[in-house]
Amino acid sequence: MTPRIIGICKELVRGWSSLDSSRFSIERVSGGITNLLLKVSAEDGKGNKSSVTVRLYGPNTDMVIDRKRELQAIPHLSAAGFGAQLLGTFENGMVQSFIYARTLTPSDMKEPRIAAEIAKELRRFHQVHIPGSKEPQLWDDIFKFLKKASVLEFEDKEKQKRYETISFREIQDEVKELKDLSDLLHAPVVFSHNDLLSGNLMLNDLEEKLYFIDFEYGSYSYRGYDIANHFNEYAGYDCDYSLYPDKDSQYHFFRNYLQPDRPSEVQAQDLDALYVETNTYRLASHIYWALWALIQAKVSPIDFEYLGYFFLRYDEYKKQRESCLSLAESSLAALKNV
């Protein structure tokens, strides 16, 4: 792939078109479970070296990602100071400016100082205006995933056997009940990142600057969903959901999100409302990624146990279901009695 990647960079990066291919170097930055990220560097012959990031989309990712939506949002997010600058796109990827920062770890995210910065930056992210429909996409996306996930066939007999144990009627009923209940919360609709795991957060320690990256799942959605989805990622790559933040840690995050300048002055009722909202949408996050994993189990060539990940997320949904739904129902009942 090297000559092709160098050719793309020569075409899309200003000042690189005339450089000899021998002046380029390519290294892998990271590989998630949907994309491959490369750092491409070039030396101009005068001792000056500059770098860009090339992101190659994984095969079949258009089954779960709306690239048109992503490319529409990036210039507006970039103008607001989020992520890397988009330098150009090609058939199965994009070239962006290189961010000089380290990727956070799951344990970094719960450190109070960093958690406060993420909350403040997330509020700013949620205030970005992206042209087009402002209708929340969460439930549309979940129902689309459900439709695709329910008609799969696996060549591997063992996988097929495990797949056939899934009741899609049950999942559909769960989704409808959760949607009906969460709609009653009237959660604010904002442009959401929707994938704020540690790998999409970068920190330049020297400048104390935090970066959000990778907006491919971005869409208008519910404020509480984006926060809950982030909290679910405290579990890390080992998916240890006992690491989900406790109430005090959540309130620390909420204070900095709701009033970045005066977190100590946030009203108790605002904290309580966001707590209910977030922990109801916590369930939606598990269902979203569970169904996403089923589709990936069929179409992705990446060596990852997607089918196992479906059961892990759906089991966690079932484990948290009663407490989260009760919290929402109690809160709604209390509001009726006011």
From TrEMBL:
This is ethanolamine kinase. It comes from Oryza brachyantha (malo sina). Its EC number is 2.7.1.82. Pathway: Phospholipid metabolism; phosphatidylethanolamine biosynthesis; phosphatidylethanolamine from ethanolamine: step 1/3. One of its GO terms (biological process) is phosphatidylethanolamine biosynthetic process. GO terms for molecular function: ethanolamine kinase activity. Belongs to the choline/ethanolamine kinase family. The lineage of its organism: Eukaryota, Viridiplantae, Streptophyta, Embryophyta, Tracheophyta. InterPro entries: Kinase-like_dom_sf. It is an enzyme of class 2 (transferase). GO terms for cellular component: cytoplasm; plasma membrane.
